[in-house]
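Recap slide: Fungal-type protein kinase domain-containing protein, sequence and predicted structure.
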Amino acid sequence: MSSSTPHKPTSKQMASNHISSPIFSSSHTPRSQAVLKSLMEDEIADQTFRFNSSKLAQILSPKQLKDGAVPSEGFYGIDQYHCTVDEKAFGNALNELVAKPPSFSSVTRAAEQACYESLAKFLTQIVKACHKALDKHKDNKIPKRPERWYHDLEFVVGTQMMDGIEGAAVLKPDIVGGKGISKSGGHHWWKPLAGQPACQVMLPVEVKNCWRKLVAQAATYARSLFDANPMRVFALILGFNHEKNQLRFLVFHRGGLAASEPCDLTEKDRFEDMARLFLTLATWRTAAEAGFITCGNDTTHLLPVNKHSQQHVRATVEKILFRSLCVRGRMTQVFLLRPESATPAGPETPEQKELRPSVQSVVGLRRSVRLAEKPEPTNTSQEKRKSTLSKVREQVKGERVQTVPSADLKSFTPFNFQCSDGSPILSDLTETVVLKTSWPSIDRRKNETDMFKDCGGHYGVMPHVSSYEVTGEDCEPISNFLFFPNEDEIKDHHWPLFDSPPPKTLDVRTYQQCIFNSCGKALTTAENPRQLTCGLRDCILGWLSVYLCGYLHRDPSLGNVLLAPGENKEGFKIPDVFLEHVSSLPNGPAEEIRQLLVKVQELVVSLGVSTQATAVITDGDLSIPWKTYWDVDRRSAKSGTPEFMSRALLDTPGEYLHSPVDDLESFFWVALWSVLFNKTSGEESGVEGPARQALTKNNKDLGIRQFGYLEGVEQRNQATQRFQAVIQDWWKKVEPLSEQWRREVFIKRPRDADAKYYLPHFHRFALRGVVDVLEVLEKHWKDGEIGWSSWSRP
């Protein structure tokens, strides 16, 4: 079951499948609601489905696996669960509720705001009626009122939120629901200070007379709920069409939207549908039933030591290194954690103070940074901007409300647990570790896990501890699987909300974690020419290590190649498995590949590669094994971070075969960024400004042209002076390689080209490109300037 991927704002014109997108707007002005709603439509796209109240109630219901239930790929269908909403006590409570429904006073169709107060009162009344009905029916499946998650849920008319998301206008939901929220005094927060839970908005309500506009606005609330509590499976919003007096439950999840059919609140015979859904919420007892992932929070995570969950390590969050934000998508987060078994942290060093949420300070860069420390901000960064309400959460100091308190975190049995041979055991580590969490699509759920399992320990690859999927109480992987119809029912349940036809596939995703035992810095922080040169050399060799182990990385970027010590202690080596594979190829290509491998090894020696890498490549989300690359869905999908993607990958309309040539061009743009935006080579001279501006606007041709104009300019900063000739010689290798690929491989491809045709070419061009780069570095290393231990002349 593969996924159709959301169209990101940066990639509409590219029809691309896996393009990294910004967390925040690069503009100094907060993104308008109109723009944000348009982005939400693009993100959710065609993954919008509607269900009758009985089916959605089962999806949201507390549930327990039936005896003998058999999973398919780790997933269980709804018919394999005992659902609380199917219990007799629930049915009796529903009948009582329907017999005496609270009344709703409709308003004139033209008055949206006029219905806010009456609707808020009605929603509060129905919640109270649900609890009252459940109180009368004793059953061990029905929690007692004090034990219910929403035992004190209330709704009030909304006010402007006290906090928000950087880069977006502050929101003002029409109506807000929360636990005892009537006591908040009108001060509403997505994530309030500890001790003020009544101020927290947990169930927003949007009122409009058009479902499309309403859902787009509701998605902005879901985005804020995901921002406040990233460890969510779903975010529930209520939508009310005031012209038709219709209410819907809108359940936003990592793969799209699951909505209820509309219920007219003025029709008594339709009240049962809505009552069933509210009654379902009243049966929630735990945070997990309310949609939260309970193995971690903002301050603490429980990490499994092995696949049998016999032991977990409690780890404290020291820093958030990176956070992406979306409703539908991977929602990647990266934490620096200190396990309880690790050495206690000492006084913070200046270097540690630089560890901030990893948003690049260069305006315009898509934030693909994964495991990198943050360089000092420039004077255009958000630290120097005028304060706005959207930053008030950061300005108001104090501990925040934790939806799942650290004392209540739950251990779990990891699914598809993988670790590399020789990987360190988590419980034995004495330093900090890095935890990366994400929601990969089902067809990519094993990409990163398998890549690090097979490549871990090789030269230039990020040191890997383990990867796995987090599971729920019944040991099933946490996913959004149940929020979709069966594949043969897609057309019946599709809600054509955004003028999209029914999707061919469903965007099923699972919640995954990867643990690494080191943290790196961006190449822009290189402290001298030698460090940058060795970093570029080793991250390219790291990419080659991944390739020779059987994977095409597909996303080299400034955030995915980092200055960090590698795990390998034996230097760069050609894996035996690749040599065996080469022996199976036709004699002609095989001989050329062997010769190129010899050349790579000679250059490794000439460039002084030691037994341990100085830089590593990481982030295998988009990697694909090249042996299984040849189904149409995979090979035609574009992937990467726009600022570093090859020009052909960006500019070619329609389907495109992402090859090693594209990855190797990405390294050129990484090198150019690393030079132009270096933070340690002295004051910015200003003459590099046009080249920097072109790159941040993703105008690559103009950027390299502007960089070429700097040759001989005395005012250049030290990094540009040392690497001007390197970059220009490297560029002379990039274009010919791309043209050779086009003429020798692409134009000559047969109609039914497959792995037998492409693989020898993949290997030849991967090695040719690496040799080209290493030869450029070797030439200038011998000349002396890029081997200096200081930016200025010795």
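The chain has a mean pLDDT of 85.
The domain at 522-787 is CATH 1.10.510 (Transferase(Phosphotransferase); domain 1).
(End of recap.)
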